[in-house]
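Whether sequence alone determines local backbone shape is best considered at the level of individual chains. The sequence in question and its structure tokens are set out directly beneath this paragraph.

===
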Amino acid sequence: MGSQNAFLIDLNLCIGCEACVDACKAENSHLTTEDGAFSAASYTTLLEKEDLYIRRMCMHCEYPTCVSVCPVGAFEKTDLGPVVYHYEKCMGCRYCMQACPFNVPTYEWHKTKPRVQKCHMCIARQRVGQIPACAEACPTGATLFGTREDMLKVARQRIADEPDKYISHIFGEKEAGGTSVLYLSPVPFEKLGFPSNLPNAPLPNLTWEVLSQIPRFSVAAAVLFYGVWWIIDRRIEIDQSNAPTEVAKLIQKGNEQ
């Protein structure tokens, strides 16, 4: 994918001040904070678990499934790293919501012209040489921003320098083919609610494996449905052909009486 930008989020350093949330809201004036909820009105939020504060946001996958399943190209993985959404192309199918392994995209159900909403990693700021607002606002360095290669180097160095402080796992380095949001933690990620069953292979590869089987499944389904239709149609035909005979029997019975 080339040299792209990424976040490194160190859960050891996050103090739960929500400066990142406030900065995101200020940068995206249409957003609100709904009691810490992660929704179409909030691109990022803080959750508390295991005495840690955990930032929740779009993972900006290296090989995003939202891009691979969107039938109209409303999602795009950019050269800078962010996965962005083009609302003018969206037809509202919400396949992206079903496909995302991190359950990130949200939908404006209450609006007459709803959009899918998710973090865009402040791509407009990146294009003019600025870092995302949340990283700029973080007072402790819990959220760092730079090239993905540099963020991985920093993460590995922190693990090497303080092995008692960090588990030896950088979440997002390999999961689902890798993401542009990387995490460090003092406890196993599955204890914090992170998905633990993701393959290291890019998920769109699996998507295409499934899609490649659709013609075969379609033929089998067509044969099955045709068989069901034929049986039903045949029963109707037999019932209709028997109807005159039954009527004749009734007439004959009436004459005999």
Notes: Residues 214-256 form the longest helix (43 residues). The chain has eight helices and nine strands. Strands lie at 5-10, 45-49, 52-56, 75-77, 83-85, 106-107, 116-117, 143-147, 181-184. The radius of gyration is 28 Å.
